[in-house]
Write a structure and sequence with these properties.
4 strands, 29 helices, Serine Threonine Protein Phosphatase 5, Tetratricopeptide repeat, two-stranded antiparallel sheet
Length: about 650
Amino acid sequence: MLDFERTTKGRQVTTPSKSMLTEAIAAARAGDRSRARDLLSRLLRADSSNAEYWIWMSAVVESKRERIYCLESAIKLDPTNRAAMRGLVIVGARTPEEAELASAIRIPRRQVAAITTGPAVGREVNLPWKWVGVGALGVVSIALIYGLSSRVIAPWVRSLIGRQAYRPAATLPPVTLTPSSTPKPGTPTRTLLPAATRIMRTPIPTELAGTPLELLVANSSTPTPLLGVTPNAYGAYESALKALIRGDYELALQFIQQVIDADPNLPDAHYFKGEALRLMDEIAEAIKAYDRAVQLDNDFAPAFLGRGHALMFRDRDAAIEDYYRAIDRDPTMTQAYLALGEIYVEDKLWVRLETTMEAALEAGVTTPRIYIYLSEAQMMRGKIDDALENALEGSANDPSMLPGYLAVGRAYVTLGINTFDRSYYSSALWPLLTFITYDQTNHRAWGYLGRAYVSLEYYDEAIMVLDTALDMEEHYAPALIARGIYFTNQGDYEAAEVDFALAYRYGTQNYDLLYWSSNLYYLIGDYEEALKNLGLALTEANKETKRPYQELKLSEVYALRALIYETNPDLRGDAIRNWEWILGFTNVRPETRALAESHLAELTGRSPSRTPTASRTPTPTKTSTGTRTSTSTATPTATSTPTPTRASSATSAP
């Protein structure tokens, strides 16, 4: 819990620590609006002249009237505040007149110390954007239309990072990728669309990064009701609830104590006393109040929930037990599921997280955050298709929830890795860019974005983004793998070898790392090392539970292994068998199938042989780190490399 400095001059004054605003923003982005309102209410009581507090409060209040009040309060304090001005335009309280918006001073984007070691480059990025009206309900969203090209993406990424790439490639081959047209947000409709259509894919430009995400999208989430309310005749009871909602906990405590004095056997009154005390950081007294509520009514679920929240500061296991007791008494208690989800994510208990979130959905709890937690559990358990489906559903149902964008982008990138399908990387760009606009401190988000850029051959953007990820976390294996692929494609083989070695040291030995490091060793002519890694990659591919993904991975291993075998005439039969296995699969990339057909035709004499080219053993490019020279000793031999057979590779062969 946050610390407060307390001074007494006839009354108690609380001064929030600087981290309280950060915690409030994090709670708002995570979808915990009640917690965000609580923290922001404390901040505003301490300093009601801070416009930023009012802007963030406008993003978490329940009604349009309250939102307008908060934004107008910000404007009164700072008449040139662009974020407040845009918010009022969005909710329909003001008109988006160009002169009014142009006259406002821009809010500089907050610079994050973890990203840059010096002042960030504050270069303005002029991107086209427009307001789109959303119908009779008065819900307004922003469609930000971009062209997918390096001329737009590169300056935008540089403006986020605040620097240029520190290590340009020695040689830049021409980019062969022809970008497909970027999906545009569709016309809003009253009909419920599939999650994949409803998800907000358009990144927020840097100039809008000062505006809370909740103000930029149509928010369909419903207010969280106050738990444990029981109708009674005491006027002080209603007054206590109103004070509790406003965040005036001391007043709420005074009113609820009046109710308890009049009737000490009301479990809900003791529960609300516990809530007021807990929110005032009086944890010991709060637990006593919750205990009394439980004694009076052992089936009163909110009391177990509240006591669980309080016990989190003392006894984590006891808190978890109370959350489950609350669910046992009320299977639809959303807050208990969310509290357990937060714990299991922090503890990396993915099986428990998955089963708990699935239980929530079965009970009818469909809060968007439940879907995001379930997606994270499924992602970590290798259920990528399910993870994507749930990430899309959760993010589409609440586009103001920032973690949803990361979940969607991560799932798309992982599908691209599993299927070698570059279209998934294109789909990952917009969610990841939107996430990074609002949270530039997450090294995983930068790493996933860098992998997407590498796979799409946006090399300038890729190296900037990956360097940023590794500046934050130098041992982050996925970013090391992605940068190793980048250096391989640029011909900087020594730098690639270093990154792959670091990924081996600090990450897990997975198919992705084994395959791409094998590709590197093939290119530099170290066939023995390449074959060793391919054997391990084959083992990892056979662990894949979904047959389509298994065949895709196996076919890529067989193709690379066949190319290596072709360099030794004694292993020609092994090359033929590997090409034949590829053609026996149903799920093979078209490029790989075509390669197998052409090579098999040549090896079996059904077409003229090609003139050997440098593509099989290319000459390494000289880079700043030196040149690695291929030697003839790396050529595979019949004695050093066992000949694969259908018997020894029964699980691999079709």
